[in-house]
From TrEMBL, chain A:
Cited PANTHER family: CYTOCHROME C OXIDASE SUBUNIT 2, CYTOCHROME C OXIDASE, SUBUNIT II
Signal peptide start-end: none
Membrane topology label: Multi-pass membrane protein
Lineage: Eukaryota, Metazoa, Chordata, Cephalochordata, Leptocardii
Keyword Transmembrane helix: yes
GO CC terms of this entry: mitochondrial inner membrane
Keywords in alphabetical order: Copper, Electron transport, Magnesium, Membrane, Metal-binding, Mitochondrion, Mitochondrion inner membrane, Respiratory chain, Translocase, Transmembrane, Transmembrane helix, Transport
Catalytic function, reaction form: 4 Fe(II)-[cytochrome c] + O2 + 8 H(+)(in) = 4 Fe(III)-[cytochrome c] + 2 H2O + 4 H(+)(out)
Domain Cytochrome oxidase subunit II copper A binding: 92-225
All copies of domain Cytochrome oxidase subunit II transmembrane region profile, residue ranges: 1-91
Protein name per Swiss-Prot or TrEMBL: Cytochrome c oxidase subunit 2
Record-stated family: Belongs to the cytochrome c oxidase subunit 2 family.
GO molecular function: copper ion binding; cytochrome-c oxidase activity; oxidoreductase activity
From TrEMBL, chain B:
Pfam families: COX6C
Underlying gene: LOC109482644
Record field: transmembrane: 55-73
Pathway note: Energy metabolism; oxidative phosphorylation
InterPro entries the UniProt entry points to: Cytochrome_c_oxidase_VIc, Cytochrome_c_oxidase_VIc/VIIs, Cytochrome_c_oxidase_VIc_sf
Subcellular location: Mitochondrion inner membrane
Entries under Gene3D superfamilies matching the protein: Mitochondrial cytochrome c oxidase subunit VIc/VIIs (4.10.93.10)
Recorded family membership: Belongs to the cytochrome c oxidase subunit 6c family.
Top-level taxonomic group: Eukaryota
UniProt keywords, alphabetically: Membrane, Mitochondrion, Mitochondrion inner membrane, Transmembrane, Transmembrane helix
Organism: Branchiostoma belcheri (Amphioxus)
GO cellular component, one term: mitochondrial inner membrane
Record membrane topology: Single-pass membrane protein
Listed name of the protein: Cytochrome c oxidase subunit 6C-like isoform X1
Amino acid sequence: MATPAQLGLMDAASPVMEEMIYFHDHVMLVLILITCLIFYSMLVLMFSKYIYRFLTDGHVIETVWTVIPAIILVVVALPSLKLLYLTDELDNPQLTIKSVGHQWYWSYEYTDYYDIEFDSYMLPIGDLVGGDARLLEVDNRVVLPVDTSVRVLVTAADVIHAWTVPALGLKMDAVPGRLNQLALQCSRVGTFYGQCSEICGANHSFMPIVIEAVPVDVFESWCDGMLDSD
Amino acid sequence: MSDLRPPSSLCPEKRTSLSPLNFHVFPAPTMADVPAGRLPKPQMRGLLISHLKKHSAIALVFAMGVTLAYKFAVADPRKRNYEEFYKNYDVKREFEAMKEAGVFHSARPSWESSDD
């Protein structure tokens, strides 16, 4: 999750998020280049006393300052499009889960191999124990196997919500009457937090998402436990 | 009229007394006194363009320098850090450590069940 005074992106927990971080660094290089050029130019021009009285047009300079930004845009756009299509790639998912947004909680369905369904409500402050994150903890977490390609089908039951997990580089609108598909793969074990990202009413800020990435055998044990509890 | 003589090699006569009455004033050195040579001709035209060329080059070098510094100080080390992290990543070891710390709900720590 985010830490206090954090400025950068969260540490990546999926290959796609790693690529997003590298792309962010790539775009930052371009931005730093342009910003330094502009700042230096501004500084020099502020203290310069030279003028050219006979300036009427500048065809060459206008060509230069059109072509160079176009090249810069291409340098940014090509990796961007590559990343965009990478996020849509689904690599033979071994598991499919459904995430349904309600006002104001998420419900999950694991109907591939088992028939597991549960609701996931935010834990109120009074139910938190030491070390829990305020407004982020839920009663029933989404448990997923690590290093496994998972398909998440996102929809909603009432109004538009959005299912988001920043550490995994995931965000998808949950639209009623529509199934949106997400490709998910956790590279490491841990808990990953997210919050609803589409305004959906009074408690929009109080319907978080928590994913637990665990080894496959632990995931299977959890599934057995969920079936037994049903 | 009293003269003030600069104590330099240009002045042929030496001061013989420190009394202020013995100070002599000479006029400032003229062109005839300056050794033979020519001053460089100052730039008369094209000042703006030469100024722009010089500072454009400096701006480019400065911007490229800062960009390369970000690349080698931030971007490349970050890639290496991720590579190093996953090179010897042990899922089981990390999971057990997190489990014992009480991070997971699906797998409770061993000390919790023993307490029960």
